[in-house]
UniProtKB/TrEMBL annotation:
This is tRNA(Ile)-lysidine synthase. Belongs to the tRNA(Ile)-lysidine synthase family. Keywords: ATP-binding, Cytoplasm, Ligase, Nucleotide-binding, tRNA processing. GO terms for molecular function: ATP binding; tRNA(Ile)-lysidine synthase activity. Gene3D superfamilies: 3.30.465.60, HUPs. It comes from Nonomuraea glycinis. The N-terminal region contains the highly conserved SGGXDS motif, predicted to be a P-loop motif involved in ATP binding. It is found in: Cytoplasm.
Amino acid sequence: MGPHPAVADVRRAVREALADIGEGRLVLAACSGGADSLALAAALGFVAPRRGLRAGLLSVDHGLQPGSAARATEVAALAPALGLGFGEVLTVTVGTAGGPEAAARDARYQALAAAADRLGADAVLLGHTRDDQAETVLLGLARGSGLRSLSGMAPAAGRYRRPLLDLPRNVTVAACRALELAFWDDPHNADPRYTRVRVRSRVLPVLEQELGPGVAEALARTSKLARDDADALDEWAGTVFRDCALSDTGGQVTLAVQGLERAPGAVRRRVLRRAAIAAGAPSGALSAAHVLAVERLITHWHGQKALDLPGGLAAVRRYGTLILAISPIA
Ligand SMILES: Nc1ncnc2c1ncn2[C@@H]1O[C@H](COP(=O)(O)OP(=O)(O)OP(=O)(O)O)[C@@H](O)[C@H]1O
């Protein structure tokens, strides 16, 4: 008898995500003990030896909940039974920047990256599922974000891979049950103070009920289309940026207005964003509203004065050029 279909699905997803990793290389699973990352770690433990890969498990102790250290230790200790070479606990100190969720995530990614470097791993696997992707897209939509944000989480970004991004959450739960793996239900995942939890437990069920089943799947599909489109527009913007850039020295970028006028708005705004960042604007602080304001120096020109942007940057139109520079512009 073959494996349970859910187990087979998760293993296939992991096998496919590791297709380009060479024999003898090390792959790590980031595992919180929840159903998603536990099913992921078990699949890695199954696939790795058959592919001639080395594999390990990392469990992060955020130190935010009572008993978190003991749980991280327990999860790490599962490694041998899951077929993984080793399990390690990474203890982090969570700051406050950006709110508790963002701070925990930052600390987690930093610790995972440092461990991957130290251990010489080629990839770190994360257990995000299709439902996580749907929630991310919906949150982006509600914020009124652009295509890049609607494209959600990338299946592969740097050393991180998300093999389960096409699988619904109930598959990981079914896989854990079939393998008799006891998973942990994070109480945070049911805490309605978190926006994401409300999207998961209230918003998506209403959408499914009112619009019909398959909403999560459709949102995940949207994210893939959006990612492709965003990639194409970024590439186009790269070409226009190169064509328009009269000078690009750290701290100052000068663009030819004519080239910007000719470009479609979607491309122009991407070029302007890129130029502002190249000139020194912090990308996190540069909003769509800032970019739109700079765009008006191109599309609605009537002799405006210099415009202030984050990071002490100023944008000014002078003769046929747009100058983005750390102010004051000489
Ligand atoms: N404490 C942790 N230790 C190691 N990896 C983690 C930890 N928390 C999250 N991750 C990784 O990040 C992914 C996404 O985390 P998130 O908090 O969104 O999920 P989760 O609710 O913990 O899900 P699950 O544990 O069921 O995968 C997890 O699937 C896992 O790969």
